[in-house]
Write a structure and sequence with these properties.
The complex is a heterodimer of chains A (532) and B (434). With 532 residues, chain A is mainly alpha-helical. Chain A has three domains: 143 residues, no CATH class; 241 residues, no CATH class; 86 residues, Alpha-Beta Plaits. Chain A has a two-stranded antiparallel sheet. Chain A is flat, with a radius of gyration of 25 Å. Chain B is α/β, with parallel strands linked by helices and 434 residues long. Helix content of chain B is 26%, strand content 26%. In chain B, the strands form seven sheets. In chain B, strands 3-2-1-7-19 form a five-stranded parallel β-sheet. In chain B, strands 9-16-10-11-12 form a five-stranded parallel β-sheet, with helices on one face. The termini of chain B are far apart. Classes of the chains: A mainly alpha (532), B alpha/beta (434). Chains A and B meet through helix 7, helix 19, helix 21, strand 2 and helix 22 of A and helix 1, helix 8, strand 21 and helix 9 of B. Bound molecules: flavin-adenine dinucleotide (FAD) and iron/sulfur cluster (SF4) (2 copies). The site of one iron/sulfur cluster (SF4) has 13 residues of chain A, from helix 21. Chain B: Keywords: FAD, Flavoprotein. Chain B: It comes from Gelidibacter salicanalis. Chain B: InterPro entries: FAD-bd_OxRdtase, FAD/NAD-bd_sf, FAD/NAD-binding_dom.
């Protein structure tokens, strides 16, 4: 579908979509909360940090709650998209760009200039914003705050308060409510509190790396780095359990859950990136690009990231394994052959059993990538070059961390919410999503069922699909939606005014149906046309 | 190469063109004076409400047409010469055709009310109507009250649209209940309450007498026939139904009545001229269907059937079981099979409603045999495929009620009401057989 829209940069609104008085007060409270934080950046040193930190976070929370209550509880439950395209902030207007730029700058500073936020140089005391969070950090993990602690706290607060807002917005929809509670829980407990408490357990003799248990490789692409693996092994049974859990979650837990429920079990029920996108990012979901061209770009970029992360992780693990099989069975060679073998098995199974379900370019892509990886492994194996995959492991890893880990997932992924929509990272950059999506498309019970001939082609579903899926293109043909990128947020089904879409898990048979003529027609005609 | 010309780029004309392209290599031209590209008329309301931009309502990317070699012509057809098989366009351009498909859609009804042609009196049918609405009623300062005349599907959409811009709406409905020519009493009553709960000034049993004008020829009020009351307003929406847009056809050899008359093959009386969609009128009615069916799905289905005929596989328009859907503010509505406002002789209704005033169902069935005729469902989504099958299998209402779960299409984790409905059904029958 076409998405070229004429966004007005005007601040005047075409209608009365202005904020109510209560909403204005709520916004003011939130801004005061943010202002307190901003002051610390100008070296205002608050005397009572716990008080001011609480005040700041409290005001932001109170403001959001007040705003949401006024925006949604004053109206009857139902779809709340009135005026979305008239709001400057939600339609790439002036406020949208302003917010995008502020967020982007914040991420750049966070990743590359943390000292500007007040992060202490070695050994010194924190200043500025980071120092403001010291009391909370001490309370949770016993140590001073880092820029990542500040970020983690703000991230969690954002998911919690905007999660509350989202739940009010969809208070008529239990699916939306439950999955929002779920992401709020996983963010608070697994991503935030548990790792901080775990850090408390660390001592001279016992140390676990920071581990957010719900993060699965390749999302936590660093999980099998030498220092992490070493410290997990050294931490004895618990550490080993973590290591094993990390591997089991990739090869066992995730495939089973994805088979049963589709990738949504992770992307919109558990994941933190998804969590932020679905809560704080919800007001921007309609900004995703639905063009065929964007879909093409998406497929190439996201699968390239998968290849990149696979090569990188393989190289990293390879680099620290030994050569002597009498010391430890997992040597460089065994590992490399193992990786090659595993990839070959997956590739062969897909090509043998599922080729029909892949589009032409997907087949070419799969073959191309497979050949490249195999050639690289082969070259290394037979020529004995020092660096696996031709380039230096360190270089591979640092460029992945920079390009994908920082620029893509942070700066573009979140900073550009108001420009490209809330799931840019999930759609174009996340290797985890790509791998789960691959399975979802080929081997899962999940689909979005289309309700016979009821679609009126209105376009609400496509417009509000944050993954840029042109849902209508399927619905108006009576075809089920089985797309690898679908994160199962359920919003397309919610906004459909005709009750056409339903997310469900059912048998694999007939999951992908392609119709030329829809239900409601003469049965003979349907048979005639659809059988061809 | 045979040249197929289609007048009208709505759902019916577009569907015909797409399917002709799938089946053949013929040259296809679509002419429209409304918009350059096909858009979804049913989504007009969402543009004004700010849910979507006009661009989002286009079901195909602009490049689609060229890629599929479907020529688009933006312009008004002013005359048809069936003898020479040619059309004349606004700018006097001529176009030859080998086969002509008339898919000109509808126009809004006007019943000769005094003042109906004043400025700031609009219908809601075309993109132009929407642009006009945007100009007259951008917000509640420029438009301090609007009056919507005619209690049907488009009327309630217009009321909801204006409501989202906080413009007070008076909604004149001629009947005793909202849409009660179609809906049974229980359903219509529930909707009436829902409309009121949104703060719409719903006036039942109210006919429009005349529209008054200010010095500049703008409507500034309406007078209600029954009470003589004048309601001052800045916008009058006339939404008392639509009728076939056949002004162009009337002066040709093509036979018309209220619409363009067609047989079951969608052929008119003139060879190589066909009519589909809102503008077509069936010579012989099909089942319980009206001879003119102004809904989205039937336009699409006619397009699909006609494409077969045009490509050499002569095929009658033969729709399956009736279905439809709509949304009234927050309440979704679907219907499968037939439920009439008052049951036909020998038929009866079973009605269940939920306490929250947002959900209800009505089932029509044959009393003697208990055979299920159709269902109206409000606030609960149901599966088309399942009801279509049950209707074909001529299931009894007992069976339908017992298996209602199978037809549920609500999102996962939603509260279900099958048990409650089942109990209500049993109770009604126990009372009936006492
Ligand atoms: C606001 C609204 C909401 C609706 N909602 C629903 C709904 O929810 N469900 C449903 O089933 N139906 C709905 N309908 C009805 C549905 O939209 C119509 O039945 C359907 O669009 C008719 O399609 P069509 O192809 O017959 O004609 P149209 O879509 O009307 O297309 C006809 C086209 O032909 C053009 N044309 C006519 N004469 C000429 C000429 N001389 N030269 C050039 N061009 C010409 C017109 O400008 C128009 O663009 C709704 C209608 C409206 C107005
Ligand atoms: S297709 Fe629907 S459920 Fe899937 S991501 Fe898009 S909006 Fe969400
Ligand atoms: S599936 Fe629903 S929302 Fe999507 S185009 Fe069809 S009617 Fe509209």
């Amino acid at each position: 579908m076409s998405t070229k829209t004429n966004s007005s940069m005007s601040l005047a609104k075409p209608d009365s979509q202005t904020l109510s008085k209560t909403q204005k007060i709520a916004v003011a409270l939130g801004i005061v909360g943010l202002f307190i934080m901003a002051l610390t950046l100008f070296n205002v040193d608050f005397p009572n940090k716990p008080l001011f930190l609480s005040l700041s976070l409290g005001l932001i929370t109170a403001g959001t709650i007040m705003f949401s209550n006024n925006a949604y509880l004053t109206k009857q439950a139902g779809i709340k998209n009135d005026g979305v395209w008239f709001k400057s902030i939600a339609s790439r207007g002036l406020w949208g760009w302003a917010l995008g730029i502020v967020l982007t700058l914040f991420y750049i500073v966070l990743y590359f200039k943390a000292e500007w936020l007040g992060l202490a140089a070695d050994g010194g005391a924190n200043g500025g914003l980071v120092a403001l969070f010291d009391p909370l950090s001490r309370l949770l993990n016993g140590g001073p705050a880092s820029q990542w602690f500040v970020y983690g706290t703000l991230y969690t607060v954002a998911i919690l308060v905007f999660g509350y807002k989202f739940m009010l917005k969809y208070r008529h929809n239990r699916y939306e409510q439950l999955r929002t509670i779920s992401v709020m829980f996983f963010q608070l407990a697994f991503a935030f509190l548990i790792p901080e408490f775990m850090a408390r357990l660390n001592s001279e003799t016992f140390s676990l790396p920071y581990y957010d248990l719900k993060n699965i490789w390749p999302l936590n692409f660093y999980n099998f780095d030498k220092y992490r693996v070493d410290s997990m092994i050294e931490a004895g049974d618990i550490g080993l359990a973590f290591l094993i859990f990390g591997i089991v979650s990739i090869f066992v837990i995730s495939p089973i859950l994805t088979y049963k429920y589709g990738k949504r079990w992770y992307c919109s029920w558990v994941c933190g990136c998804g969590g932020l996108a679905e809560t704080a990012g919800d007001p921007f979901r309609h900004l995703s690009d639905k063009s065929q061209f964007a879909w093409k770009v998406e497929r190439w970029v996201v699968h390239s990231v998968v290849v990149f992360v696979t090569l990188m992780t393989t190289a990293v693990i390879y680099s620290y394994l030994g050569n002597d099989s009498s010391k430890y069975w997992l040597t460089k060679d065994v590992f490399l052959l193992g990786v090659a073998g595993l990839l070959t098995v997956v590739f062969a199974l897909v090509m043998l059993f599922k080729r029909k379900e892949l589009a032409k370019d997907a087949q070419y892509g799969a073959i191309g990538y497979f050949v490249i990886i195999m050639v690289l492994i082969g070259m290394h194996y037979f020529s004995g070059t020092k660096n696996v995959f031709l380039v230096d492991t360190y270089f591979l890893k640092s460029s992945y961390g920079f390009l994908i880990g920082a620029i893509f997932s942070g700066v573009i992924g979140v900073g550009f919410y108001p420009i490209f929509g809330n799931r840019v990272w999930c759609r174009f950059g996340c290797p985890m999503a790509a791998m789960l999506g691959f399975q979802q498309r080929l081997f899962s019970k999940f689909r979005i069922t289309t309700n016979g001939g009821q679609c009126i082609s209105c376009g609400n579903c496509s417009t509000y699909c944050e993954m840029g899926i042109d849902v209508r293109a399927y619905a108006q043909k009576g075809e089920n939606i089985v797309r690898s990128s679908c994160v199962g947020c359920g919003i397309c089904a919610a906004v459909c005014p005709r009750g056409v879409l339903k997310l469900e898990n059912d048998s694999m048979n007939g999951r992908i149906n392609s119709n030329d003529i829809l239900l409601g027609n003469d049965v003979d005609l349907m048979d005639l046309v659809n059988q061809k | 190469m045979e040249h197929i010309v289609i007048i009208g780029n709505g759902i019916s004309g577009i569907t015909a063109a797409r399917h002709i392209r799938k089946l053949s290599d013929k040259k296809i031209t679509i002419i429209s004076a409304e918009t350059e590209h096909f858009f979804s008329r049913t989504a007009l309301m969402y543009i004004y409400m700010g849910h979507m931009k006009y661009e989002h309502t286009k079901p195909y990317e602009d490049s689609f047409w060229k890629k599929n070699r479907i020529d688009l012509k933006f312009g008004l057809v002013t005359a048809i010469n069936t003898e020479h098989k040619s059309l004349q366009l606004e700018n006097n351009e001529n176009m030859q055709y080998d086969k002509l498909i008339v898919a000109t859609g509808s126009i809004s009804n006007k019943f000769g009310w005094k003042g109906q042609d004043l400025k700031s009196v609009i219908g809601l049918y075309s993109k132009q109507d929407l642009d006009q609405l945007e100009a007259i009623a951008p917000n509640n300062e420029v438009c301090q009250r609007a009056v919507v005349v005619g209690g049907g599907l488009i009327g309630i959409e217009l009321a909801e649209m204006l409501h989202t811009r906080k413009i007070p709406v008076t909604f004149l409905v001629r009947e005793e209940r909202f849409w009660d020519g179609v809906l049974p009493r229980g359903d219509a009553d529930m909707l009436g309450r829902h409309i009121l709960s949104h703060g719409i000034d719903l006036r039942l049993n109210s006919n429009l007498s005349e529209i008054t004008s200010d010095a500049h020829g703008n409507a500034n009020g309406v007078i209600i026939a029954e009470t003589g009351e004048t309601i001052s307003c800045n916008l009058v929406g006339l939404t008392a139904g639509v009728s076939p847009n056949i002004g162009l056809i009337k002066s040709t050899a093509i036979e018309t009545d209220r619409g363009v008359l067609v047989n079951r093959y969608l052929e008119t009386n003139v060879k190589d001229v066909y009519a589909i969609g809102d503008c077509a009128q069936q010579r012989e009615p099909i089942g319980n269907r009206k001879p003119i069916e102004a809904v989205w799905y039937t336009g699409r289905m006619m397009g699909e059937a006609l494409a077969q005929t045009i490509c050499g596989n002569r095929m009658a328009y033969n729709p399956g079981h009736w279905f439809n859907s709509a949304k009234f503010f927050d309440i979704e509505y679907q219907t499968y099979g037939w439920v009439f406002a008052t049951p036909k002789k020998g038929y009866a209704h079973f009605h269940w409603k939920h306490d929250d005033g947002q959900k209800c169902i009505t089932i029509e069935y044959q009393e003697a045999s208990n055979i299920f005729l159709g269902i109206n469902t409000f606030g609960i989504r149901m599966r088309h495929e399942v009801f279509d099958r049950w209707l074909t299998e001529q299931r009894t209402t007992d069976y339908v009620i017992k298996n209602l779960k199978e037809a549920n299409f609500d999102p996962e984790f939603y509260k279900t009401f099958e048990e409650e409905i089942n109990n209500a059904y049993k109770y009604q029958f126990k009372m009936a057989y006492r």
